[in-house]
Amino acid sequence: MIKAIYFSAAALLFLSSGPVSATTSSETVLGEVISVMERTREVIRQTPLTERVCEDKDVPVYGSNGQQNNDLGSMIIGGIIGSAIGNKMSDSGGAGAAGTVAGAILGKKTADEVGKKNQEIVGYNRTRSCENVKTVNQQTIQEVIGYRLTVNVDGKIIDINTQTKYLPGSQITVTKTVNYSLQ
Questions:
Q1: What integer pLDDT is reported at residue 116 of this predicted model?
Q2: What is the per-residue pLDDT across 131-146, written as a single tens digit (0 to 9) for each?
Q3: 130 vs 88: which has the higher pLDDT
Q4: Mean of the pLDDT values across residues 41-51?
Q5: Residue 78 above 70 pLDDT?
Q6: Are 124 and 58 in contact (CB under 8 A)?
Q7: What is the C-alpha to C-alpha distance for residues 24 and 28, in angstroms, rounded to an integer?
Q8: What is the 3-state secondary structure (H, E, C) of the chain?
Q9: Secondary structure of 115-153 in the HEC alphabet?
């Protein structure tokens, strides 16, 4: 193993000490396209879409169940109760008036809540509800990135990658490069 390392080092010194020459020549030659194959890659194309989606819904229709709703009576009773509470809590005369107003408002609110409880569903209306829904359409496609040509040049069959599409039987110019060097 050590002899092989010494021999390799000596060979490197010998090769690097003397001049090494190489010749390169290039020429343009004609070739004939035998076949063409597309080179492709998979690409995921994403396209945003806005789609209008509609839906029919049944909306309840409310009606009275026959019980009367007496707003004025509720306000009067609430005012009397509010006045009594206001007078009881304070010895001043103004507290009764403030209690009457507060009681009337509270009585009206109570009457409204009772009125809602006295309603029932008497039917349904069919309505159409629509909205715009945004989605993304994903599509996998094959994208052409170039072509692989099989070419007959100087009696040899070679493959060349190119961005240009050629038809079989086409004549193309090919640059032929030859390197000569010592080993």
A1: 63
A2: 999 999 999 999 999 9
A3: 130
A4: 92
A5: no
A6: yes
A7: 14
A8: CHHHHHHHHHHHHHHHHCCCCEEEEEEEEEEEEEEEEEEEEEEEEEEEEEEEEEEEEEEEEEEECCCCCCHHHHHHHHHHHHHHHHHHHCCCCHHHHHHHHHHHHHHHHHHHHHHHHCEEEEEEEEEEEEEEEEEEEEEEEEEEEEEEEEEEECCEEEEEEECCCCCCCCEEEEEEEEEEECC
A9: HHHCEEEEEEEEEEEEEEEEEEEEEEEEEEEEEEEEEEE
Q: Check: CB of residue 153 under 8 Å from CB of residue 31.
A: yes
Q: How far apart are CA 156 and CA 174, in angstroms?
A: 12
The chain-wide mean pLDDT, for the chain, equals: 77
Where exactly are the structural domains of the chain? 19-44+139-181, 68-117
At 113, the pLDDT band (50, 70, 90 cuts) reads low
